[in-house]
Amino acid sequence: MYHTASVLTNGKVLVAGGLGSGYPEVANLYDPSTGHWIRAGVMNDPRVWHTASVLMNGEVLVAGGYEDPILHSAEMYNQSTGLWTSTDIMKDARDWHTASVLLNGKILVTGGYSGHNMTSLNSSELYDPSTEHWTTTDRMNHGRLYHTASVLTDGNVLVTGGLLNKIFLNSAELYDPAVETSATIDKMNKAQSHD
């Protein structure tokens, strides 16, 4: 449980991390053409409550999560070689965050839980695959974890709900990648979390 499943550009499904018996750093691939599972290498860090994003070049960025302590590490899976390689670390250690592949190819990571003073994060970061580096971007107006982040057809990212230090949120905000800013928008009719 708490693993990720990513549909790769070759049609296979990469399942990475999570809680359970065995070795949580071991990844697996499902091949729908054969109906069989195979090993997909060993991640550098075992992790749960992380994110996995399929990049435009077909690689998979796995970021953050928990492995005691909360992680700020990130790594890439190359479907051609089957290898995992470490990449630049995030500025903030976080789990229960979101990761969105933007239309410009960058990855937007928002919110999550830091474990420090039981804090819901309002920070956001961008991963640029062309430079393999993270940079901070505009903070959200509310700290939140267990929230959702959806890339809209215009390229903006709609961030909704979640928890702020055990308070359910009905707030929503819109991140604009063109100017790298977040703005509050109309609240949802109902506070929601764990969606």
TrEMBL record:
<dbReference type="InterPro" id="IPR037293">
    <property type="entry name" value="Gal_Oxidase_central_sf"/>
</dbReference>
<dbReference type="InterPro" id="IPR015915">
    <property type="entry name" value="Kelch-typ_b-propeller"/>
</dbReference>
<keyword id="KW-0677">Repeat</keyword>
<protein>
    <submittedName>
        <fullName>Uncharacterized protein</fullName>
    </submittedName>
</protein>
<dbReference type="InterPro" id="IPR006652">
    <property type="entry name" value="Kelch_1"/>
</dbReference>
<dbReference type="Pfam" id="PF24681">
    <property type="entry name" value="Kelch_KLHDC2_KLHL20_DRC7"/>
</dbReference>
<keyword id="KW-0880">Kelch repeat</keyword>
